[in-house]
Write a structure and sequence with these properties.
Number of helices: 3
Order of helices and strands: HHHEEEEEEEEEE
CATH architecture of the domain at 56-174: Sandwich
Distance between the termini: 57 Å
CATH topology of the domain at 56-174: Gamma-B Crystallin, domain 1
Keywords: Signal
Organism: Aspergillus ustus
Protein name: Secreted protein
Signal peptide: 1-19
Largest sheet: 4 strands, antiparallel
Number of strands: 10
Length: 175
């Protein structure tokens, strides 16, 4: 018992040194103006890619393809970020983009595409659905239209045919 009480703190102290942050190294970088001019479009593309990766959609998940049962709690339902795989329990047959402010200036990026996968970590067969296909417009305050989102049958192909027998287990969104 005494040996265990001595070895555990010593092991902890030994690993703290490995986990401590390292100081930032100084870098002296000079950029040639001609090189910067040549890569200016790449910088814009990189900024655009980062902006797209920063976009997310709240996704409510359901056990039925018509979203008629109660939505699944977090962390299954939740934020899905562009370019990142989001895992959840199997037998997920329905999904719906969550409501955004009922403001005409605020809604999810309708260029986003969901790829629902039969396996975890975005592996196996998949179905593809466009967020724009699930938008249903309603009239809001003073007749200003705003989008609401219909249920997406995650196990079905876009033509409606059933494809993923055990439902979806993960989703990858791209915008």
């Amino acid at each position: 018992m005494l040996v265990k009480n001595i070895l555990l703190p010593l092991g902890l102290l030994a690993t703290l040194g490995l986990a401590s942050p390292t100081p930032e190294a100084e870098t002296d970088v000079t950029i040639d103006t001609t090189e910067a001019d040549l890569n200016s479009t790449t910088t814009t593309d990189d900024e655009s890619t980062l902006a797209k990766r920063g976009s997310g959609v709240w996704l409510d998940l359901y056990g039925s393809g018509s979203c008629s049962d109660s939505w699944r709690p977090q962390p299954q339902s939740g934020w899905v970020w562009s370019g990142q795989c989001h895992n959840f329990d199997g037998f997920t047959y329905g999904a719906r983009a969550g409501a955004v402010d009922q403001s005409p200036d605020t809604w999810w990026d309708d260029r986003c595409t969901f790829k629902f996968w039969e396996g975890a970590d975005c592996h196996g067969h998949a179905t593809v659905h466009h967020l724009s296909d699930s938008i249903k417009w309603k009239n809001g305050y003073a007749g200003i239209p705003y989008p609401t989102y219909k249920c997406i049958a995650t196990a079905n192909k876009a033509d409606g045919s059933f494809y993923l027998g055990n439902g979806a287990q993960s989703v990858l969104m791209t915008c």
